[in-house]
Amino acid sequence: MKVLIVIVALTTLLAPIHGARRQCAGVDPNRDGSGPYVYEGSGFLTSDWTQKSCTAAGGSVDPNKKGNQKCCTFTDSRFGDFNRACDGQKAANYPKFSPASQPC
User: Fold this and answer.
1) I need a labelling partner for 46 at 20 to 30 A (CA). Which of 7, 17, 27, 60 fits?
2) What is the CA radius of gyration of the chain?
3) Looking at the predicted structure, is the pLDDT value of residue 6 above 60?
4) What architecture (CATH level 2) is domain 17-103?
5) Spatial contact of 73 and 20, defined as CB atoms under 8 Å apart
């Protein structure tokens, strides 16, 4: 019985933890929203919005990715938190750009 408990405990610890990898991109939806979407060129919006959305989802940002490549990893259960935080982003200095939650 003790061996079975140890095996179950080890299996649980070694099981992969599924997580979402997303970014909150600053994109220009080309006036009518039909796409193709164009990233804000400096990468500032994607970087800033991904960081803020990641914090709201309790995730962590990949330190090796910058600008338009910035990516957040968080648990699947916080997917809605990330999307809500992303959808709520606004940038007064970049009025034509909108937030878009997308995989990275």
Assistant:
1) 17
2) 18
3) no
4) 2-Layer Sandwich (3.30)
5) yes
Tens digits of residue pLDDT in 30-57: 766 666 778 899 999 999 999 999 999 9
0.85 surpassed by pTM: no
pLDDT in tens, 67-99: 999 999 999 999 999 999 999 999 888 888 999
HEC per residue, the chain? CHHHHHHHHHHHHHCCCCEEEEEEEEEECCCCCCCCCEECCCCHHHHHHHHHHHHHCCCEECCCCCHHHCCEEEEHHHHHHHHHHHHCCCCCCCCCCEEEEEEC
